[in-house]
């Protein structure tokens, strides 16, 4: 029996080794495929006996001329499992790897693991990365090796600076001699930018970058994203140096503005990067110390013509650039119009005075405002947006809502006592409602400007006549009597309620008009610390009870934006009421959907969601809800589950994790009964599953890939992710 056993083992060993070298002999284009094949090879090697394992690893090293990149994934996993390798042979393999594949992320991971486990070999790795690579044209490989050095050995600054200066000189020579490059310039641009970023954060040495910046500006007739990104980083490095030459800076600024496709590219997708680069020049340009004179005040027509006062990424960067101009003392001298209107205004005017005279009408500004965008801007008002700090951030529906950092100052200046204001138009365009919503802003300075806007508007309103003037004045009186503290921040729910009142005043035919007017006349103030009319409207006994309930739920859905809203909702027992009413026979499908939308809005805020989970048993309520909810509710439910998964992944609470595990399992099973699953639902579930993959692996009720096959088939995330690597 013993002889047969040994014979069988040898046969198995041969088969396994044959399998390993057959897999190694092929090239795999996809990263996910390489990861899976590497895992299979590693598992096969680990299953061998100790001596056979060492033999297999040595044979892999001897075959390292083939599938160099695939072997990097294999050796990375083997080193993590603390398998031994022959250092001399492995170093020679690393030399081939860094020469051919230094741009791949796995190379850095492999070198990091190897240097951590073998600190004595650090000098040899440094020598590999320091060695010069012979290559024609741009030094792409050498740049990638420098990047590896900066990441692995951040203390080796002097060596890195020497190599960086050499690379800069080679790049200048390349751009001087070449007009049409056949090389992969984008790869060099990305690697060199990352090297510059690392050095910018660490070094204080003086590196001459003038020639390189000048040649890059000359070389690219049209800026690519990578080119302008590198240019921005190089200029940031150039101006950060203590001995920067202001004459050179002015010349570069002139070259940048005179670039032949500069104006066309301001309207492209690279506008945000161009605006940041322009801001850097403006911030450090000194006309007194420069030989080149640039009239920066004439740039405003160009900037305003491409600007739209939304919270999209490009528009935020453009506003930040204009803000930099003004901080440096260059006056805008405009009526805050934008787009084509600004271009026409400046082209028609002959001097600054005529610009101001033509621009003094608020009517021009209001004609540029889109009614739908104004309504959306009120519902999705960004309470975190600040007035002076105009750095770009990501906002919900950002490209569809107006920017209060631009619009509120426009209203303030346009409502001045010297201007003629059509109050009715200001109300009907929802400008007044927008100002009231802005009272919920976290920025104290912005709120102060808004209060001044309201005071100026009231002065104009008193002298005019139109149909809802008295109602607005009454609301102003009640609001003034309710505010006990200067520059008071209103809860977003209350601010939205006031904004909706203005809309109702202009539509007296609305079903809510009589209810709201009765509420305003009932007492000499507005209660700002409670949700107005929640009990009366939600439990309405009038014939229009469905409309009134839907109105207050819509207010909650769009009004919950801040922690103060949670306090108001808790005091009014909002969450308990909604959770109880959802399962009531009187709750129709429309109301159920609105209730879920309220909880979806709540789940976006970390503190409020945690309170729902720990104080209200929200996950247990969801478990019961999933079994009986309608198909139309699944999309909102998937978004709620995704929000919970995003915020719960950092919470170390076993009970909540188990409950969330049950919710996710139930939802996955519920989706099996659906004939068709939308892509958005599938993506929301898949992103949550991938975040919790490690938890599922260790769980006794771990997910099987077959359980989510019906979701994988509909998900776009699944196509980009190696699911086998998550579940095997």
Automatic annotation (TrEMBL):
Taxonomic superkingdom: Eukaryota
Cellular component per GO, a single term: nucleolus
Gene Ontology BP terms: maturation of 5.8S rRNA from tricistronic rRNA transcript (SSU-rRNA, 5.8S rRNA, LSU-rRNA); maturation of LSU-rRNA from tricistronic rRNA transcript (SSU-rRNA, 5.8S rRNA, LSU-rRNA)
Pfam families (alphabetical): NopRA1
Chain ranges of the URB1 C-terminal domain: 432-621
Name of the molecule in the record: URB1 C-terminal domain-containing protein
Source species: Adineta ricciae (Rotifer)
